[in-house]
Amino acid sequence: MFEAAIVLLYGLVAVAAMAVTLLEGWANHDGLTLHRLAGLLACLLWPLTLVVFILHGCIARLLTRISRSTA
After folding, report:
1. For 42-49, which contacts have Cβ atoms below 8 Å and span 24 or more sequence positions?
2. pLDDT tier at 59, thresholds 50, 70, 90
3. Most exposed: 30, 32, 64, 71, by fewest CB within 10 Å?
């Protein structure tokens, strides 16, 4: 259940960012340029960095607790 919620949240953030990118191109009458396609790819990948930072924080906290309990 928790994993499904995380995937859903990730997907919603990525889709919202992609929608903004597509609307920007539509408003500028640019169409799909190479830079716009790169932006769409970045919309799919940038939330992944947030996940990495959250996991890093959780792991660092866990390791700190383990090291304090053994000392």
Report:
1. 43/14, 43/17, 43/18, 44/14, 44/18, 46/17, 47/10, 47/13, 47/14
2. very high
3. 71
Phi, psi of 28 (to 5 degrees): -90, 0
Residues listed for the chain? 71
Q: What's 23-48 look like in SS3?
A: HHHHHCCCCCCHHHHHHHHHHHHHHH
User: Could you report the per-residue pLDDT of 30-58, keeping only the tens digit for each?
Assistant: 778 888 888 888 888 877 787 888 899 89
Judge if pTM exceeds 0.70: no
**Residue 36: which of 9, 17, 13, 11 has the closest Cα?**
17
